[in-house]
Design a protein that fits this description.
single chain, 9 helices
Amino acid sequence: MKLEEYHIKELYRIIKKNGVKYYDVQTELVDHFAIALEEENVVSFKEKTKEILEGFDGKKGLKQITSQKKKVLLRKFFRIYTDGLKNYFSFPKVLLTICIFIGFVVTFQTFEVEQSTYSLIAQLLNISLIFQGSYNTNRYLKKMYNKGYSFLTIKILEYLQMIMVIPIASLFAITTFFKEYDNVLVLSSIITFSVVTILAYAKLKKHLVNEVISSYPMVKA
């Protein structure tokens, strides 16, 4: 069976209707459907599509595929993220980490900062975290979301943000519940770790956004 453009559009519509909302997962499934349909020369497009869908166990099966894909991508990107994070504690990037740490220590000791300053830093780090998690900062993604496209590849980033939350939440907890705590070395360590987790995340985000743009140029318009 020779597939025309309207057939492909119909496949996207059917797959989306059956609970697959991520465009990258839809595309993989459309490719699978298309291969099976192109090998079919007996039954109609509608009948064969229904048969393939039933082979996936319908809507339930497609949702399971999305869930499995999510787990695979989460493991993959978690490994990439942690490897990127480790780089800040190995040569040569460890030099940058050390400089950031020493910079905070010297600044805090020189100016004898008060607890309110640490609270302000925690708030600034939280703002940076929110900024990194916002896709409106990327013109391509903003345009795609406005057109109704979403990508599982990008959605995974929201789960990885939990790693960045840990040190920032720790700093918030200290400044909120231990107002007299002023160990400069410990606080500088937490702030430094917060900064490098955000830097590692920003690099991964840039990589994944570029991957989406290069993989799906057909939706750039």
